[in-house]
């Protein structure tokens, strides 16, 4: 049974710090050559900021164009495929939660909101602000002067403040109740990603969030117009697609990996939600 390929953070020799972190100039990464990465996933956070460049970026089977002034943010476990022209400029940053994980309640909520946003196309002025922060982070990482890790984390706080501003309507403030709903929905999303193999019941997720099933359904309905059961099913299908397209595993093996005791039930479940059997889906999209 083959696992989905997992890439590790690329760091230069001599960089020692708490947690894993890396930031590189895209010109350094590409060296004038086009970059083509087939489907894989990471066990860390991945930030791609493109100042100028073209290409394609597929994240969990959603296709995004790579254009000037675009930023992509991937969470651990997400599957992606990346193509980037050799003349692209910007930054590629990678880190894990042991290096950057906000502890302050407000900062943590902001970070959770930011990490749920895979793609952002920015106005030139706003992108320049973010690019400047990344340039400062890159300089701190290269020089490694006293307190450089703390300086990097402080600049990451500022980076994610600016990043989430892109999703706000100018001159508007979210209502307190909508902020609460968004926070709980974001928590549910992360719980689904982390536990879907072993937990497939609404009551289990409601319990983790200290909510009733009714309350949790009200939150998901208000957020995306879907029930918790629908979101659970979508996450199962997403995990199945990841394994079908990224590994050569047999359908029975994938069913077992996803916690299905009966492969035939898994096949029926997948076809009900996609219109294709697992085998037909694999052949159609490979």
TrEMBL record:
* The keyword DNA-binding appears for this protein: yes
Lineage: superkingdom: Bacteria
One Pfam family name is HTH_18
InterPro entries reported for this sequence: AraC-bd (IPR003313), Homeodomain-like_sf (IPR009057), HTH-like (IPR037923), HTH_AraC (IPR018060), RmlC-like_jellyroll (IPR014710), Tscrpt_reg_AraC-type_HTH (IPR020449)
Query: What does the UniProt keyword field contain?
Result: DNA-binding, Transcription, Transcription regulation
| Residue intervals of the HTH araC/xylS-type domain | 186-284
Q: Does the keyword Heme apply?
A: no
Please identify the protein, giving its name as recorded. Answer: AraC family transcriptional regulator
What species was this sequence derived from?
Answer: Niastella koreensis
- List the taxonomic lineage: Bacteria, Pseudomonadati, Bacteroidota, Chitinophagia, Chitinophagales
